[in-house]
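Sharing a chain and its predicted structure for anyone who wants a worked example. Both blocks are below, sequence first, tokens second.
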Amino acid sequence: MNRQTLIKSLVMGVVPLLATAALAQQPAALDGKALFTEKCAMCHNASGMGTGLLARRVDPAVAELEKRSDLTAAYVVRAARVGILNMMPITRADASDAQLAAVAGYLSKGKP
């Protein structure tokens, strides 16, 4: 086997392995609903404290965040990062920007 053939064989064998390794390192698409359940539902599910407090200020029928139709992704992100009244800010240690964006997309039903 000459040198050129050997190099070509190595490249043809290594390149697919590198591409596979790169794909394996990419995070899977984030599931906004699953992240909401993991990071937010303890306060914002049907019986959560956040839902109860919010029901005092808005129509109780829309106090549960998952049932709202008026939320935008930008509002969800801002409310989470800054906090609102009793709700403490959600730090990047609590939820990364990508995780929060996924939750915001889920709650806003795709509205920016």
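Comments welcome. Residues 17-26 have pLDDT under 50 and may be disordered.
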